[in-house]
């Protein structure tokens, strides 16, 4: 084989490798899988197939595609002063396989949706009423925060730590859209002090004493 033939063979092999990598990596980077039918309205089931089981399409009707659960404010009479009303596939079965979910966020004055992440989704928040201080922290520990007024939007990138705080004197209302039918939520205080992480790990991680750890565990374990 001459040099030009060898170079041609290597080039051809490299192109095949690039195509292979593209075909294998791109699906991994995608969000929820694309649907393979017009719709897949979920039926109640304990069986999961990386999603929810579809109803028989012949039994689906227009009412399946309407959700009436976000029209009224939820109670904010709790320690956080906030309430989240989800419309994920579990609550709104028509969202199954469509890669989308919605949530209503209600805030009393001073109300907080605590530090949390959505491991499977990016979130866009629309502020319908009130004033919110919102932000997220990237993997370089840089804070990106803004005070939002009525009509503003804010993006929380997928998987990053974020929060929303009502800094106004009146109740606030926000609507969030997320690009997953089941974005997941991990509340950081609960994940750290409400799980079974040992006291020794938490004491060392936060440079605090055993009594402080036990106090926080008693607060967030429920």
List the helices and strands and how they pair.
Elements: H1 3-29, E1 82-87, E2 101-107, E3 112-117, E4 123-129, E5 132-137, E6 143-148, E7 153-156, E8 161-166, E9 172-178, E10 186-187, H2 188-193, H3 199-206, H4 210-220
Helix pairs in contact: 3-4
Descriptive keywords:
222 residues, five-stranded antiparallel β-sheet, 4 helices, Jelly Rolls, single chain, alpha+beta
Helix segment count?
4
Main sheet?
5 strands, antiparallel
- The string of secondary-structure elements, in order, is HEEEEEEEEEEHHH
Q: Total strand count, please?
A: 10
Radius of gyration: 23 Å
Adjacency order of strands in the biggest sheet: 1-2-9-4-7
The CATH class designation of the domain at 79-206 is Mainly Beta
Distance between the termini: 72 Å
**CATH topology descriptor of the domain at 79-206:** Jelly Rolls
Which percent range fits the helix content? 10-25%
* Average pLDDT, all residues: 86
Overall morphology: globular
Gross CATH architecture of the domain at 79-206? Sandwich
Beta fraction: 25-35%
Estimated structural class: alpha+beta
CATH level-4 homologous superfamily of the domain at 79-206:
Jelly Rolls
Uncertain regions: pLDDT < 50 for 5+ in a row?
17-30
What's this model, at a glance?
Helices cover 23% and strands 26% of the residues.
Descriptive account of the structure:
The chain is of the alpha+beta class. 23% of the residues lie in helices and 26% in strands. It is built from four helices and ten strands, in the order αββββββββββααα. The protein has helices spanning 3-29, 188-193, 199-206, 210-220, and strands at 82-87, 101-107, 112-117, 123-129, 132-137, 143-148, 153-156, 161-166, 172-178, 186-187. A five-stranded antiparallel sheet has the order 1-2-9-4-7, with no helix packed on it. Helix 3 (199-206) packs across helix 4. The radius of gyration is 23 Å and the shape is globular.
């Amino acid at each position: 084989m001459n040099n030009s033939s060898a170079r041609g063979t290597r080039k051809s092999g490299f192109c095949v490798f690039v195509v292979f990598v593209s075909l294998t990596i791109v699906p991994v980077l995608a969000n929820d899988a694309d649907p393979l039918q017009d719709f897949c309205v979920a039926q109640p089931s304990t069986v999961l197939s990386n999603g929810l089981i579809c109803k028989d399409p012949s039994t689906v009707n227009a009412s399946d595609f309407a959700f009436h659960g976000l029209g009224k404010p939820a109670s904010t009479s709790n320690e956080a002063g906030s309430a989240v009303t989800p419309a994920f596939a579990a609550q709104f079965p028509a969202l199954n396989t469509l890669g989308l979910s919605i949530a209503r966020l209600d805030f009393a004055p001073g109300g907080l949706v605590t530090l949390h992440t959505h491991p499977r989704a990016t979130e866009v928040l629309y502020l319908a009423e009130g004033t919110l201080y919102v932000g997220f922290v990237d993997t370089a520990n840089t804070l990106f925060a803004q005070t939002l007024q009525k009509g503003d939007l804010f993006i929380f990138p997928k998987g990053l730590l974020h929060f929303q705080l009502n800094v106004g004197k009146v109740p606030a209302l926000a609507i969030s859209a997320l690009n997953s039918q089941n974005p997941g939520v991990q509340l950081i205080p609960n994940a750290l002090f409400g799980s079974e992480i040992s006291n020794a790990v938490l004491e060392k991680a936060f440079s605090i004493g055993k009594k402080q750890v036990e106090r926080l565990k008693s607060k967030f374990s429920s």
